[in-house]
Design brief:
This protein is α/β, with parallel strands linked by helices and about 325 residues long. The chain has two domains: about 120 residues, Alpha-Beta Plaits, CATH 3.30.70; about 160 residues, 3-Layer(aba) Sandwich (Rossmann fold). About 35% of the residues lie in helices and about 30% in strands. Helix 7 links the parallel strand 8 and strand 9. About 5% of the residues have low confidence.
């Protein structure tokens, strides 16, 4: 399959905003190459056993790369990205040049882009996410999540994914029924299963994401716990869950509001991430309007994650 790689020069401060533009335009994956991230990881002794030689000399602008499938609708998506970049507010954040270029790439080339900077990462208290091609010796109590992201977003390194996983570690209880809506690579579904969920259902509109989720469930030995299916949000869900987790974008989370409450048990938890800072109030209002209580908010850079609870008996 052929993809259009969108390459945008920005800053560390502006990288999350640029990534959000690409997600909202329908990018199937986003890579942020930030030299400061590399330098920060190098300063954290013991975190990496091996560092890509080219990364040691990383310097210059932050580069955000997004990937759109080549085919019908590509030009419209490109126009959306260009318009959003041209109208982004610059009064409170430095966005850099926002220089924009494109390049056609094949699946194999994209896979190599993922591998360049993707190394084992500790999240929360006990979760460690590692790519399938890396070796890592887990410590006592570590919950090892092994992921091969393939062509789907969700390596665990993005702030919105990290926030979701932190909240899952806090709120998920053994035996819970969990729904992962917009599963991407399946990282959240796999994490839920490894945290002790009794049953996990993972849904994504893209069949490619569903296939990669299934691959990652087998990779982690949790394919008996997780069922991955193609579906539009909650349209194929039956019954109620203990936790629904969704790492998408603000507009979709707002639209999901009334659907979520119909598929959660009393006192159950909705973990919503992928919310850019400026959209937080809109999302909170939508959740409150649909009868949910905001229990917790977590933030990393420009990204927000919320844990909300339905009315009734607490979990």
């Amino acid at each position: 399959m052929e993809w259009m790689e969108l390459i945008i020069d920005t800053t560390t401060e502006g990288s999350d905003l640029v990534a959000n533009v690409l997600f909202e335009a329908g990018a199937a994956g986003v890579v942020i190459e930030d030299p400061e991230d590399v330098r920060a990881l190098i300063r954290q002794k013991g975190d990496w056993d091996y560092i890509e030689p080219g990364a040691l000399n990383a310097e210059g602008d932050v580069v955000v790369k997004g990937y759109l499938p080549v085919g019908d609708g590509l030009n419209r998506r490109l126009d959306i990205v260009k318009l959003r970049l041209a109208t982004m507010p610059r009064h409170y954040v430095s966005l850099g040049t926002l220089l924009f270029s494109t390049e056609r790439v094949e699946d194999e080339e994209w896979a190599e882009n993922w591998k360049k900077f993707y190394k084992p990462l500790r999240i929360g208290q006990n979760i460690v996410v590692k790519p399938s091609w890396e070796d890592y010796r887990p410590g006592e109590g570590d919950i090892m999540v092994t992921i091969d992201p393939g062509m789907a977003f969700g390596t665990g390194t993005h702030e919105s994914t990290v926030l979701c996983m932190e909240l899952m570690e806090k709120y998920l209880k053994k035996g819970d029924r969990v729904l992962d809506i917009g599963c991407g690579s399946g990282i959240l579904a796999v994490t839920a299963a490894l945290l002790g969920a009794g049953a996990v259902e993972a849904y994504d509109l893209q069949q490619l994401a569903v296939d990669i989720t299934k691959k990652n469930t087998r990779l982690n030995g949790v394919d008996q716990v997780i069922k991955a299916k193609q579906g539009d949000l909650l349209d194929r869900v039956r019954g109620r869950a203990d936790i629904i987790v969704s790492n998408i974008v603000a507009d979709v989370i707002i639209r999901m509001g009334p659907l979520v409450t119909g598929h959660l048990k009393p006192g159950a938890v909705f973990i919503a991430s992928g919310i850019i800072r400026d959209r937080k109030e809109e999302v909170c209002k939508a959740l409150l309007y649909n009868g949910m209580e905001i229990m917790e908010e977590r933030r990393r850079n420009e990204w927000i994650a919320l844990a909300a609870r339905t009315g009734g008996r607490s979990k």
